[in-house]
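Troubleshooting entry. The earlier prediction with zinc ion gave an output that would not parse, so I re-checked the input for stray whitespace and re-submitted. Clean input:
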Amino acid sequence: MADLVLFNGKIFTVEAGLPWAQAVAIRDSKFVAVGMDAEIKKLAGKNTEMVDLKGKLALPGFNDAHLHFTNGGLYLLGIDLRPARDEKEFVSIIKEYIRKLPQGEWVTGGNWDHENWPSKKHPNKELIDAISADNPVLVSRLDGHMALANSLVLKLAGITRDTPNPQGGEIVKDKKTGEPTGILRDTAMTLVDRVVPPLSRDKRERAIRAAMRHAQELGVTSVQDNSSAEDLAIYQELLRKGELGVRVNAWRGADSWEDFQRIGITAACGDPFLRLGTAKLFVDGSMGAGTALFFEPYADDPSTSGLPIHTQEQLNLLVKNVDRAGLQIAAHAIGDKANAWILDAFAKARAANGRRDARHRIEHSQVVRPDDVQCFAELGVIASVQPCHCIDDMRWAEKRIGKRVNDAYRWRSFLEAGVHVAFGTDWDVEPLDPRLGLYAAVSRELPGGGPAGGWHPGEKITMAQAIELYTMGSAYAEFQENVKGSVKPGKFADLVVMENNIFEIFPKKILTTSVAMTILAGKIVFKK
Ligand SMILES: [Zn+2]
């Protein structure tokens, strides 16, 4: 008999043989049957929990193939000053936040915007000093180019009326008194960095717990994480206590490949809830910072074509060593030259070490020449992409790289060439919310809409494809396609129920629907 039966639903299984079903039966942590209401209900006994989906859409749990989980959690723990409509609300939000904090703990985050206030004036330290005598406060403006520090922070950082402005920044000072107002612009914010304490074990755990809750509310049941050693220790402890609320594939830097080798850890080693064996490395930087590596100079800055992190020889050697150690490589590459280099390094490693099911992956795979798309397929390299980056970057990408945007964010080209694609978000760089990625993948429009028909619409994909990449595609990218990623008997019962049918609602409405229920390993972990 089943523990849990969900019936009267529209279940998109991501299985070609039976793409749609009405009902599923779950026992222990796995799906035991998928099909029509009448046949599945036969598996219900008197102890079976019955859930009427009332015609709602259910999907396999989302698997975010690239994120920074602790950073995301820290963002969630931080103070949110966006709702402040004037100075008074700004102060009262900070006051309320501090009330729940231990004495001495820092207040960071913020996202205030004085442009929304009637005065349109920058806040100053005098506004908050009286309510924050025992807690250092450093809250940033929405754009991250400005922060307000309280007097305690200025004191800890040794910033006084006599401190000169650093190159590329400003310590804003009162015109009459000459005293710092608390506003630090750009590089002046780094004067404070050295006094911000390192992250405590306790705060790291709180961040991870907040991130897990957020993931469950969004239907994200698996994450592939750029983890630190400290994160890994916490994941292990949560796993031991049965409190790990999301499946984690924890990556470590490729420079630790010799440690992995010595201990005998290879790709996809571990438990259904916690795995190791993916080694992260960087080939280049980012397009926004002008450090992504291209064959030709930037359109808006002909003096540079980006910066490689390693020389091509160093990269080839590192990739060869990590591949020989049996690890999976997750290589960050944005520019067309960075993608070409890493593909070449993968080909060389295969020639030297022999062909195996390595599933090396290129994180971002943002600008890829047409011939190189074929190389992904030939080498079995996975394109690990973040559709939300596209609808953010498309505002300025053409200005930066000119007609090379034709080779950018090419999801449909990858699929047509037979390349394995995985979907993620790069949270906390972009929101963790899968709705945004699905919307981006099917529309290639800004969150508010436009350009009409989508930006380079030939690379749009269908909703069914987008969901498949966010579930099975990401599961394949972590060697887990046989145990999760679709609704199939024998697979782990990770499922998300959506309030609205995202196959039917106009793309823009995808962003305003919500998750009704999340099931992880057969247990309801979130319910609206
Ligand atoms: Zn990242």
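This one parsed fine. The CA atoms of residues 7 and 54 lie 8 Å apart.
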